[in-house]
Write a structure and sequence with these properties.
single chain; mainly alpha; Amino acid/polyamine transporter I; 19 helices; about 0% strand; AA/rel_permease1; AminoAcid_Transporter
């Protein structure tokens, strides 16, 4: 394939909102209330952390929207960082996406999909005699191997689907999202209307162990909330395929994030109204149970468990698909500048970066074998907030460097809102190192492999490392 082919700007606002929401709503909305309850021992404080997580996410989204409105292009933050900082920092970001942030997101979502599928249909264990084989006592690649194999097959399938064209992937995402919305609103309606519901219980700030909630516990619990909110920035990766991207991306991010915050507060209040904190703590300690399933079973019985397992399957399928769809565009942009594997710069006959999809899919499959769901998600949140802070800092830098540049959107509450976001990112970074040192060390180690890789790519692709400008497509496809 020739790398002179160009991406087509075919996505309008509707599909941008679908991709934003589809990248956010995944497994976290069903699983993360239990670890938050185990950390905080109070239903009211769990909801407070959901609210705080939503506010901080919105602050980051609004700051990102200003930068996107000014610099939108294929690759999202990778393209922004070249303008704000330099090519080296942009590369480290892109490499972090590949090694930790986006590929681990794909892996963990596919892992939860596989868990839910296996809860519906019993599958014989595979390679159970190898389950205790480990790498350094940290990674157990053959533990729960039948679940991991299912997750790998899903990643390969979605990689193939998205290689057929961006409209195919976005269309699948729209259909799945409608089913997810219907399912979540059924839970809220019937859950809060059931005899088991005690909505007042959801807002109690009293802790079950009668000890005060600590600052560190709030930040640790918010790691779980942030996993559930993670993914909204992925729409920036598709900047070269969005019509009027500098206006559409900010609008799509804002609409999508506000929608998700509202849904999360309603559905988590529902869980906490039908399940006590001690019950949620037991679910978390059990390790193999999903809070949302147990909540719905409390008012719908065994049929509720089946309903939730199907809904989780559909939701994680949609979120995995949205993440596969968006993420590979950054590696494509990097490869076109000689800063990634050369083949990733190719577009296939469907005008999508097929080789980049393959690189992404293979590494995501490796990460499935590397660890558990919670290990992967803590690694992601630690890494991603470094770059949320860097993008938000870019608002200040660009205001000073390009004061007269037209900005389709300016962040609300400047300079207070972006300053709060930057401060929060710094505190969360430090807190994660203290409370999750292993996950932080693994995530940082994978990110830092980008330093030697940067020089290796520069030397290997030296004749081709000048940026390739993308021409504006002649034909526009309506969404």
């Amino acid at each position: 394939m020739s790398n002179t082919k160009q991406l087509h700007r075919s996505l309008g606002l509707r599909l941008v909102v679908v991709v934003v929401i589809g990248n956010i709503i995944g497994s976290g909305v069903y699983k993360k209330v239990a670890p938050m309850a185990a950390e905080l021992h109070s239903p009211g404080w769990v909801l407070v952390c959901w609210v705080l997580g939503g506010i901080i996410t919105l602050f980051g989204a609004l700051s990102n929207a200003e930068v996107a409105g000014l610099l939108a292009d294929t690759g999202g933050e990778y393209s922004y960082y070249k303008r704000i900082y330099n090519r080296f920092f942009a590369f480290i970001y892109g490499w972090s996406l590949f090694t930790v942030i986006q590929t681990a997101a794909i892996s963990s979502l596919a892992y939860v999909f596989a868990q839910s599928l296996h809860s519906l249909a019993a599958v014989p264990p595979l390679l159970s005699s190898w389950a205790e084989v480990s790498i350094g006592g940290v990674f157990y690649p053959f533990a729960d191997f039948s679940v991991k194999l299912t997750a790998i097959l899903l990643i390969l399938f979605l990689t193939w689907i998205n290689s057929r064209g961006i409209k195919a992937g976005a269309g699948l995402g729209t259909a799945i999202l409608l089913l997810v919305f219907a399912g979540i609103f059924l839970i809220i309606f019937f859950g809060l209307g059931s005899g088991q519901a005690n909505l007042g219980q959801s807002f109690s700030l009293q802790t079950t162990n009668n000890t005060p909630v600590t600052f560190s516990a709030i930040f640790t619990a918010m790691l779980s909330a942030f996993w559930a909110y993670q993914g909204w920035a992925a729409i920036g990766f598709l900047g070269g395929e969005i019509k009027d991207a500098k206006r559409t991306i900010p609008r799509g991010i804002t609409i999508g994030v506000l929608t998700v915050i509202s849904i999360y507060l309603l559905v988590n209040a529902t869980y906490l109204s039908v399940l006590s904190v001690p019950a949620l703590e037991e679910l978390y300690q059990a390790g193999n149970k999903i809070a949302a399933i147990e909540a719905v079973k409390s008012f719908w019985g065994a049929g509720g468990g089946f309903f939730m397992s199907v809904l989780i399957l559909i939701t994680t399928l949609g979120c995995t698909n949205a993440t596969v769809l968006a993420s590979c565009r950054t590696y494509f942009a990097m490869a076109r500048e000689g800063l990634f594997f050369r083949k990733a710069a190719n577009l296939n006959d469907a005008q999508v970066p097929g080789s980049s999809l393959v690189f992404q899919g293979v590494w995501a499959c490796v990460l499935v074998l590397s660890g558990t769901f919670d290990q992967l998600t803590d690694m992601i949140i630690f890494a991603v907030f470094i770059y949320y802070g860097a993008t938000t800092l870019g608002v200040f830098i660009l205001r000073k460097r390009m004061p007269e540049a037209p900005r389709p959107y300016k962040v609300w509450g400047y300079p207070v809102v972006p300053a709060i976001m930057i401060l929060f990112c710094a505190v969360l970074f430090c807190n994660t190192i203290m409370v999750r040192p292993r996950e932080a060390a693994i995530g940082m180690g994978l990110m830092l492999t980008g330093i030697p890789m940067y020089w290796w790519f520069l030397r290997k692709n030296k004749p081709d490392n000048a940026p390739v400008e993308e021409a504006e497509p002649k034909a526009m496809v309506n969404s």
